Each structure stands twice: as C-alpha cells, then as structure tokens.
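ok here's DUF488 family protein, seq below lol
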Amino acid sequence: MAKPRLFTIGYEGADPDRFLAALQDAGVAVLADVRAVALSRKRGFSKSALRDALAQRDIGYDHFIRLGTPKEGRQAARAGDAATMQRIYCEEVLAAPDAQEAFEQLAELALNRPTCLLCFERDPAVCHRRILSDRLRKRGLEVVDLFAI
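and the structure came out like this:
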C-alpha cells in the first residue's frame, strides 16, 4: 500500500490560476493554510478569496492559525535568516500546547485526505512548512513540494 502524500506549496511569485491548477493536478483535497496571518497583498491569496476559489475546484480549505510563524519569525525569514526563523518556530510555536493540538489535527487530516500545506515562501527549505512536513514525514507521509510558477 502506498504512503499517503502530503504536499506543500508557497504562493510567492505565483499567479492564482497556476497555483490552483498545481493543486488540482496533484489531486489535493484540502489546502491547510499554515500562515499566522491569512491576508495577502497578492490578489487571490487572502483567506476569503482563496477559500472561494478553492471551493470552485472542489478543494477544501482549513486555516491552522496556531501553526503560523509569529511576526519575529516572518521578519527573520524575509531577511534570509532561516535558522532564526526555525528556532523561533520550534521554540515558541511548536512547544505551545495549542500548537501541538493543532498539529495533531493537521496530522489526522493529512493521513486521511490528500492535503497541501500553504505558506508564502516559494522555497520550502526556508519556510516553516518544511518543519511541519518533516514532522509529518515521520508519521508515515510521503512529502511532495509543489511549485506554481
């Protein structure tokens, strides 16, 4: 039996149509938004607009706000300091009981439905979704990074 797949995607540099097509082509059933702030200056990627566009393609949307990166972590990521972002994320976010509960909910979802983690950064190596996907890989999921550009 094949391992369940977990996808990840960032919308940096992507346009909404290619982004949605990448999800649909991969067979994603649910987009798990792991941004702390589900707003975007980029058209089509704020929570409501994104949820509506996904619904038109029969893809679900779930916002895991408690798994988002705090402001200091986002600032470190923008500055190209992935190590500081990762430290902040692991020590301040994932150590919190409410984030641990959210992670368990995400794991349950991903083990049962084709799920894709969403954040901004195009490169998953410099994004907190890599930390999440590595932890989910240890739960038996195969991780596939999608790119929409």
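fwiw The first strand starts at residue 5 and ends at 10. kinda neat tbh
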